[in-house]
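Below is a filled-in request sheet from our internal design queue. Each sheet records the structural input a requester submitted and the sequence that came back. We keep these sheets so that new team members can see what a complete request looks like end to end.

REQUESTER: design group, bay 2
PRIORITY: normal
MODE: inverse folding
CHAIN LENGTH: 327
BACKBONE (tokenized):
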């Protein structure tokens, strides 16, 4: 079966330049996203996790061409849409963007403070299906009700809403054009715990009702476990482990994944501390270690880990992990 979204070999590097006597010259390269591949079926949720700076957001923005990728394929229903998104055919580009939408991390900065909520939700219709504004009033009211807001609140401005309400507006804006895939960039990280639960329940109910697929980016593994069907763990721009959520959390095969899962807080004061403490800091993406990039922090590293960079291999649990000495 052809997957809804098929990412193959996605790569995004940034060149660091320095001004010299004769113009600028490249000095180093930041490998923000380096050969990332995964598939997503309709109605599934892929949780993309990892420490800050591992390339999660750059991966998502490259998929939508908000950041132009250097290489790779972005296949939507089997068709590589990367040339379309980067091309000059506006109609074809908009047709792809209608199927893939984005929810930004900061619900306040992503909304125009001078627009009412009704105006913010009307903008997708103007871009994708320009018609008389009055024809969309009913759909905007229905959108607000879908995300749990009263339609009468559409005349208010973003600063008059709480963080959770603003994020509901961001979700409504993404759903306005009825997409197949929504990329959620840490949608609950700026919210209180109780509000996080409301937004996660909303996302889950919308997925059941609309059949939309999610790429859910977060460093909060508790929320990832709640909402995801599959998990991809990133480290220094690469996916080091990927598989079904229950298998990943029950038996992580990569030592980095095991360390992340062990850091999930346990709501019990008398619980035994089983956290895996990593050595050192995350290496710079401009100066990645030779061999496995995780080996300087890994207690189970072998001599081969310092020399050979592992590739994703299938493990007995059904997951894939890039590790010479899996757990």
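RETURNED SEQUENCE:
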């Amino acid at each position: 079966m052809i997957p809804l979204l098929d990412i193959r070999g996605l790569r995004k590097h940034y060149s660091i330049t320095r001004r010299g006597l004769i113009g600028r010259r490249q000095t180093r390269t930041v490998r923000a996203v380096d050969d990332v591949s995964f598939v997503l079926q309709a109605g599934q949720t892929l949780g993309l996790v990892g420490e800050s700076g591992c390339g999660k957001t750059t991966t998502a923005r490259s998929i939508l061409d908000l950041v132009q990728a250097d290489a790779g394929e972005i296949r939507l229903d089997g068709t590589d849409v990367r040339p379309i998104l980067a091309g000059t055919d506006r109609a074809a580009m908009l047709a792809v963007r209608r199927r893939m939408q984005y929810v930004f991390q900061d619900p306040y900065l992503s909304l125009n403070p001078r627009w009412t909520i009704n105006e913010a939700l009307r903008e997708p219709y103007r871009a994708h299906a320009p018609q008389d504004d009055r024809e969309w009033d009913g759909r905007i009211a229905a959108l607000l009700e879908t995300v749990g807001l009263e339609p009468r609140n559409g005349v208010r401005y973003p600063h008059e809403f709480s963080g959770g309400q603003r994020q509901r507006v961001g979700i409504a804006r993404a759903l306005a054009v009825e997409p197949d895939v929504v990329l959620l960039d840490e949608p609950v990280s700026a919210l209180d715990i109780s509000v996080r639960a409301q937004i996660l329940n909303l996302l889950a109910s919308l997925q059941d009702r609309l059949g939309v697929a999610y790429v859910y980016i977060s460093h909060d593994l508790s929320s990832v476990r709640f909402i995801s069907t599959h998990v991809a763990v990133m480290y220094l721009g690469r996916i080091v482990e990927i598989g079904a959520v229950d298998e990943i959390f029950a038996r992580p095969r990569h030592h980095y994944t095991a360390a992340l899962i062990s850091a999930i807080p346990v709501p019990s004061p008398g619980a035994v501390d089983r956290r895996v403490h990593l050595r050192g800091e995350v290496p710079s993406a401009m100066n990645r270690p030779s061999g496995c990039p995780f080996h300087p922090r890994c207690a189970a590293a072998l001599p081969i880990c310092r020399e050979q960079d592992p590739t994703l291999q299938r493990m007995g649990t059904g997951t894939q992990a890039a590790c010479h000495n899996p757990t």
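SHEET NOTES:
- The first strand starts at residue 5 and ends at 19.
- The radius of gyration is 21 Å.
FILED BY: M.R.
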